[in-house]
Amino acid sequence: MEVAVCDDQKEYRELLHREMIRYAFDCGLEVNVREFDSVSPLLEAVGQGERFDAYFLDIQMGREGDEGISAARELRRMGDGGLIVYVTAFAEYMQVGYEVRAFRYLLKDQLDQMLPSVLRDIREELYSGQYFMYQYNRESFRVPMRDILYLESSRRVILLHTRQDERRFYGNLDQLEQELAGGPHDVFLRCHKSFLVNMRYLCRLTGSELELTDGRRVPVSRACMDKVRAAVLLKDIGS
Q1: Are residues 122 and 7 both part of a single domain?
Q2: Between 20 and 30 A from 136 (CA), which of 36, 56, 108, 212?
């Protein structure tokens, strides 16, 4: 598990880092923690392709005192689907994360009590079957569901697009749609006979194209237009 801790107070960065390593040791879990003392180097690392499973962001950072909030917005704008945990010294800030789908909140004066349960929740979220499995050239591969932007069918080949790369394997998009429907993986939307998109990355509908949060566009067929429009509208309301 790759974790980023961003806090301008060294004592809290080190405390979070230390407690995460202790938790990982007790659970037999491999955790790599990278510390950032400000938002800029964190966003730069992500912009250069570094990927984190979870972000622990102090809300009250920077001159304006709310750079943790703007950092989370920028991560989502970049198409990053990592779990966001807001760390704050004030309880009144614990409802600011709705628009970026904040996963959990931590109060600084309760880190010792709250952190273990948050880490358990992160572990469950990341490792409770939240992977897409496929085979290619007799090898098996897995990709976190939340990393998939969309699946594209080209004859018998399925192109799996993530923010970082593109994978390919043989398959049938109709069958994949049925397999992914329902349960914890019911986050994919058919927008075209050749495209299946991850709804967490929907941004806007422009004409007959669906724009994703990272700026990429996929076509929308006339037959799928109504349900795509409804999905985008619901996401806008939820934001």
Answers
A1: yes
A2: 212
